[in-house]
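User: quick one, fold this
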Amino acid sequence: MLTSVSRPSEINRAVTDGSVQPAGYQLDWQDVPVLVQAFRRMVRSTEFDVCEMAATTYLVAKEHGAAFTALPVFLVRGFHHGAIVRLDRGPIDHPKQLEGRSVGVNRGYTVTTGVWARSVLQNEYGVDLSRITWVLSGDEHVASYRPPANVVPAPPGSALAGMVASGELAAAIGVPAGDGLVPLIPDPLEAGLASLRRTGIYPVNHLLVVKDSLLAADPGLAPTLFEAFAEAKRRYLAAGMSELDSRVAAITGADPVPYGIEPNRHVLQALVQAALSQRILTRPPALEELFARGTWNLSA
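Assistant:
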């Protein structure tokens, strides 16, 4: 029996509802209503045997000695051009105007949406990220991580949306549009798809991690879990994928949500490079060292 956490979605539903079982194992699904709290509990106390986790949280945790290792099972993907919001009819209407100003980030500096969104600003709009003060609404999952000097906490009791509305912040990442806030990048979905056409990158947000002690005790566990989640994904694709995944597939001419290291190497390398550039990682890890032995040559 493996204590497990993963937010049910169409891509993993056949595993979370028990229709697909990993051979020789039973998954005991834990009720964690706020998924990010499961990330924190796993990072700080290795509470679960198997756990969904944000990709950059995992990268940071691994560099800081976490006793778990990922499987190349990527449960959540998305574009992040729409994650940056500004005040409608405010003074900011182009990403370069963020330089020299303060920008909010929902939760911690290392959250994956923030990493991808800052990468968009840097690589697509030429923004110098070091010239922005990043204002956080929360702390980091990995308590030992120390952010760069231009990363500061928001004042206690403040809300990022209100700070954008008042002009204290030029923009914010991870705050929903609405109530006078609009995406900084116009037509963000189309901007994301255009980026896919240029780069081939459909960003990964969440993956799956497993306790190292369990992986060491049973070398067959990693490929067994991989295959269960791969079968769930195959059923998702066969039943009809989401509109976004369908649009990605039409552009790439391939499986829009592949599992495995090799079919995701360019995406993973882009995420690692963004984390290095943003001073989230201190060294570039070899991709294989991030994933469990027994899965290095698997794909689905």
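User: anything notable?
Assistant: The first helix runs from residue 13 to 16.
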